[in-house]
TrEMBL record:
List of residues binding Cu cation: C81, C85, H170
InterPro entries in alphabetical order: SCO1/SenC, Thioredoxin-like_sf
GO molecular function, one term: metal ion binding
Keyword terms, alphabetized: Copper, Disulfide bond, Membrane, Metal-binding, Transmembrane, Transmembrane helix
Family: Belongs to the SCO1/2 family.
Name by which UniProt lists this protein: Protein SCO1/2
Transmembrane segment boundaries: 6-28
Cited Pfam families: SCO1-SenC (PF02630)
UniProt keyword RNA-binding present: no
Domain of life of the native organism: Bacteria
Disulphide-bonded residues: C81-C85
């Protein structure tokens, strides 16, 4: 569940996301990616993302370097999510298909659980395979997941005390991460697959 706080100041509209100030304003001309972006992160996009160690669908320990080998749409959620996560993951999967078909860009959706107690590596692997053949599903220990979420300034918390059917509150940003570049953009829930693909293609081409 995203909890944005709008702040109007000098024509800049900002949203607080997990401690990172994301502002929809024009970037400095010196940023070679500025023309492709619609937003900015106070302190720079370097504040979002970073090293992580998690478990893939086969239970193997993997790092961010193992996973982010091509443009990646990174999303945090959980497989028991009744509505938001399936829609967002399907949007990311559709964007990957558009990138391949219309732009000739190979990309992958990456789904990291915020509910490792139920989302074992096997569960994440099965969910990802059913969602899209290129999707990577990642789980891990509570500590590993917390470290990955912290790197991306992603908030999550258990919503209730039901032992089996509890919900998770979590943010719903999708992060575009490029190999050797790191996080270069974020997408909101109302960005459709065509928009995600368009901005991703622009950024990939700008980096190349």
């Amino acid at each position: 569940m995203q909890r944005p706080i709008a702040i109007a100041a000098a024509g800049i509209v900002a949203t607080i996301v997990g401690g990172a100030l994301i502002a929809t304003t024009i970037l400095a001309p010196s940023d070679r990616l500025a023309a492709c972006r619609t937003g900015n992160v106070a302190g720079g996009f370097d504040r979002l993302g970073g090293p992580f160690t998690l478990l893939d669908g086969a239970g193997r320990e993997v790092t961010d370097a193992d996973v982010i080998t091509e443009p990646s749409l990174v999303y945090f959620g959980y497989t028991s999510c009744p509505d938001v996560c399936p829609v967002d993951n399907a949007r990311n999967a559709a964007a990957v298909d558009i990138l391949a078909e219309d732009h000739g860009i190979e990309a992958q959706p990456v789904f990291i659980t915020v509910d490792p107690a139920r989302d074992t590596p096997e569960v994440m692997g099965d969910y990802a395979a059913n969602m899209h053949p290129e999707m990577v599903g990642l789980s891990g220990s509570e500590e590993q997941v917390a470290a990955a979420a912290k790197a991306y300034s992603t908030y999550y918390a258990r919503a209730d005390d039901d032992p089996d059917y509890y919900l998770m509150n979590h943010q719903t940003m999708t992060y575009l991460v490029l190999p050797e570049e790191g996080t270069v953009e974020f997408f909101k829930r109302d960005d459709g697959p065509e928009e995600v693909a368009r901005r991703t293609a622009c950024l990939v081409e700008a980096v190349d």
